[in-house]
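Section 3.1 - Work completed
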Amino acid sequence: MQDTLDTLARTHRVPGAQLAVDTGTEVVSVHTGTADAVRGTAFTADTAVPLGSVTKTYTAATVMILIDDEDLDLDEAVADVLPEFADLPKVTIRHLLCHTAGLPTGPDSDTAAAMTASRYLSAVCTAEDALFAPGTDFSYSNAGYVAAGRLIEAVTGMTWQEAVRVLLLDPLGSTPAFLGESRPARPTATGHALNAATGAMRPAHQNLAPVEAPAGALLASASDLIALGRTLTGRSAVVPSATAALMRRPGEGAEAAPLADAWGLGVSLHQQDDRWWCGHDGNAQGTSCHLRAEPRSGVVVAFTGNAGGATALWHDLADHLTGLTGMRVPTAPARLDRGGPVAFPACAGIYRNGASEYRIGLDADGLPALSIDGDLPLPLICYPDLTCDLVDPATGRREPGGRFHRDPVDGTVDRVQISGRTARRVGTV
């Protein structure tokens, strides 16, 4: 595995990476490269990497500890605790953790940088911006986890950082590290971006707003993620096994393709052969981190890398793990036979998720193309089951895009879900 990781890191131009695998009987841990390509700092087994959205699983686990202690109830209205949800009285804590609350994704990090949590949530928790009725659909939302962090603070009287450290990180044996710390308590890695013109790696600045911390501010190593994965499989007392099993149960309405095959309480769910894995993927600026855990066997796989190319490295690396784990490790949702492409002019329209505009137009041949917030349009390939692929104009490669929804009453296309985020139709093009 060391040779494989070394080779793939060079192939994908990733300065440093970690891989840890718990087979259920032994732990294999390897690492390679540098934590900072400019300074040449060594990437060690203890180096903590910005996790991006894998932070959400830690936040969800902390909420579940509070629920297990009966400080919160999974199906209580969030509005009973947070006044910012007064306009959305049917949204529950379960909806937040499963991304089925119908919340927009939230302001971008630059906009959110000057916001308090209360102001942030007041801006997105409105009936006008709601994407769908709670519990009826899925839309990946940072705002839902800003709210989850606020719940933790309201119940514990601690900051989110303090609470996640005391209730989860310390019991797991993980040394806390958070974005924005001037003197972290452990070595940390820098994210990197490739300069296409020069071929050089340059450090990437982490711009997550402080208010978004519960959605993406943690740093951890692959070994730390193994400890979290053991908890998710019920092999740790930090989260009781019955509570971990509840986290792994698919949420109602949580159809999460192309991010995952389903979604639980703070965990993505991935079907591979006859097994269901849980975990999460995360991308910060110039990092890519991944966790997979299979409860039946106890196998846990964790990967961190400090460049954008680390996502492709992870996909390639997973193909080499079968001999170690005894099974294939899922990196993407199962692809079912959807039939051949079809013309779908009914998809054309203007869709909105909060401040983001999704515009789908038709070219001269009647083929759809998607533009988000005025970016270069990407061709769409539509299928009979209302799913769609995005096409890279440069290579022609198809990537899973998402799916459309029809209104159950009149049959019109009223929503589109792209890369896990749902946008509601608001106009025509």
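Second construct:
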Amino acid sequence: MPHVAESIRAFRLVEGEFTEENGLPTPSLKVRRHAAVAAYADEIEALYATPRG
């Protein structure tokens, strides 16, 4: 199977900040993916539920 380049097809801006208090960034300001996925599960689900055309 040939390699297919991936690209961003949809995105959403979310309310709020990524702060140490809410546990979303690490001390070096990298995103904690598991925390972000948990915090924004509804928004992520909506991205995949929206038909692309």
